[in-house]
Design a protein that fits this description.
It is a single chain. By secondary structure, the chain is α+β, with helices and mostly antiparallel strands. The chain has three domains: 2-83, Structural Genomics Hypothetical 15.5 Kd Protein In mrcA-pckA Intergenic Region, Chain A; 87-166, Pseudouridine synthase; 170-312, 2-Layer Sandwich (Pseudouridine synthase). The protein is 20% helix and 28% strand. The chain has helices at residues 36-42, 48-56, 122-130, 154-165, 241-248, 263-270, 276-283, and strands at 2-4, 22-27, 60-62, 78-83, 95-96, 100-105, 135-136, 145-151, 170-178, 185-187, 191-193, 203-205, 214-222, 227-234, 290-299, 302-307. Strands 5, 6, 7, 8, 9, 10, 13, 14, 15 and 16 form a ten-stranded mixed sheet that branches. A four-stranded antiparallel sheet has the order 1-2-4-3, with no helix packed on it. A two-stranded antiparallel sheet has the order 11-12. The radius of gyration is 23 Å and the shape is elongated.
């Protein structure tokens, strides 16, 4: 078996693939008469699930880049399989079991690629450390730092994703916000996609929005900057929920490049054209000061309580 690595930039040949893939070339033994899936299992050393997934997604090709279908027999000199094999930049999990792991993601790293030109995400580290079957149990924003739960195989992926869908966990965040927060606050304003905004990802509070609930508790006030460190505990999982809720009560998160600022600045940020000095001047910091600090849940009758080792 030989490994030929390159970035698949040809959309015409690889429709639907939006991540940096490698193309693995697997040579066919003489007189092989196997069907393609059996060949992937025996010769490419893939498991049944992954071989089925690759065939279903059109990621197996003959030597002329023609997509191979399940049921076809292998022929020719070799076949090619498009695989996402992550690379590392030194980020390691802070906790793991045989079924799952937890990463402490720094701010600025996306959890998942958004285009085929995305060079590096947390998913690279996940696949590098744990292979093709590992996946994200949930997501956090690129600029939010802190805990991300990873599943190592299909069984734990089903169980832990269902746990997140059913809110069978406790999770809290730390945030530095503008102004003085003196008392605990419960914010139960509905959230929906922002109207009359040119920012496509922007959300807003509204009476006709989806039910949303966040508990806020002040931890420390910084008199010199007129900012407060707060604990935020979301009880629902709406897009940008903590950011939207805090901005709606006049306590915007420091460093937020979308909420509570001029939309021209937000637009420059989303276009990756906002210079650091301008961002610090207009938002208060070079990053969003929001951090996923704590996660607890039960798995296989064991209670897990995990704290981040990073800080804001």
């Amino acid at each position: 078996m030989q490994l030929e690595t390159f970035w698949l930039q040809c959309k015409k040949l690889f429709m639907g693939i939006v991540m940096p893939f490698i193309l693995k070339k697997i040579f066919i033994p003489k007189e092989s008469n196997k069907k393609i899936q059996q060949f992937l299992i025996d010769d490419a050393k893939l498991n049944i699930s992954n071989s089925q997934k690759l065939l279903a997604k059109g990621r197996v090709f003959d030597e002329n880049h023609k997509v191979l279908q399940n049921g076809q027999k292998v022929k020719g000199e070799f076949i090619q399989v498009a695989l996402f094999e992550g690379h590392t930049r030194g980020l390691k999990p802070i906790f793991e079991t045989e079924d799952f792991a937890v990463f402490d993601k720094p701010s600025g790293i996306m959890v998942h690629p958004t285009s085929r030109n995305t060079e590096y995400t947390l998913l690279d580290e996940i696949r590098y450390h744990f292979g093709e079957s590992a996946n994200l149990a949930h997501r956090i924003d690129q600029e939010t730092s802190g805990l991300v739960l990873i599943t190592k195989h299909k069984y734990s992926d089903i169980i832990l994703k269902e746990m997140f869908e059913n809110k069978q966990y406790d999770k809290n965040y730390l945030a530095v916000v503008e102004g003085k927060v003196e008392d605990a606050i419960t914010i139960n304003s509905g959230i929906k996609k922002a109207t009359n905004s040119k920012i496509g990802v922007k959300m807003e509070t509204a009476e006709d929005g989806k039910d949303s609930l966040t508990f806020i508790r002040p931890l420390k006030y910084f008199n010199d900057t007129n900012q407060t460190l707060v604990e935020a505990v979301p009880q629902t999982g709406r897009q940008h929920q903590i950011r939207v809720h805090l901005e709606s009560i006049g306590h915007r998160i420091v460093g937020d490049p979308i909420y509570g600022i001029d939309e021209d600045i937000a637009d420059l940020y989303l276009l990756k054209k906002l210079q650091n000095d301008v961002r610090v001047e207009t938002t208060g910091n070079k990053r969003l000061l929001l951090h996923a600090n704590y996660l607890s849940f039960q798995y296989k009758n064991i209670n897990y309580k995990i704290y981040s080792k990073l800080s804001l």
